[in-house]
Amino acid sequence: MKMCIRATLLSMLLTMFAISTAAFAQSASESMHEAGHSAENALSHAYHGTATAVDDTALTAKVKTALHEDKITTGTDIHVTTVAGVVTLRGAVPSSDVSRHAEQVAHDTTGVKGVKNKLTYVYDALKK
Question: Which of 22, 32, 57, 89 is most buried, with most CB under 10 Å away?
């Protein structure tokens, strides 16, 4: 009888161990799958972030070149930054007309999605 109880208990313990091992293996497998998916997403975001930064740098250079080659804005103190295709113009220009023109030049540059004009007018302020 004791032998039968021991055999039954041993059988139950082995069954419980097998079930818990399978559950642990499934959980570990799911965790590894999630970790792989997270790493894939991180790599994708890093790639797209780098690609956007490269595009923004090229766009900044194109806008600076266009402003430098324009007869109205050449020689002005205009700083250009670009984030996700949106160009920001900063600096001092002689008048509001020059500011509006610089904004138009930036806007007309291929690839620009938007323009934030934060230029100040040096001579307009002095006239008042």
Answer: 89
Q: In what order do the strands lie in the sheet with 86-93?
A: 77-83, 86-93, 114-121
pLDDT, position 79: 94
Taking the C-alpha atoms of residue 102 and residue 112, their distance in angstroms, rounded to an integer, is 13
b/e per residue 42-69 (b: at least 16 CB within 10 A): eeeeeeeeeeeeeebeebbebbbebbee
CA of residue 62 relative to chain centroid, distance:
21
**Which 8-state DSSP code applies to residue 79?**
E
Mean pLDDT of 36-55: 60
Closest CA to 76 of 58, 54, 103: 103
Q: At residue 81, does pLDDT exceed 80? A: yes
CA 77 and chain centroid, separation? 29
DSSP string over 4-62:
HHHHHHHHHHHHHHHHHHHHHHHHHHHHHHHHHHHHHHHHHHHHHHHHHHHHHHHHHHH
Residue 87: strand, helix, or coil = strand
78 three-class SS? strand
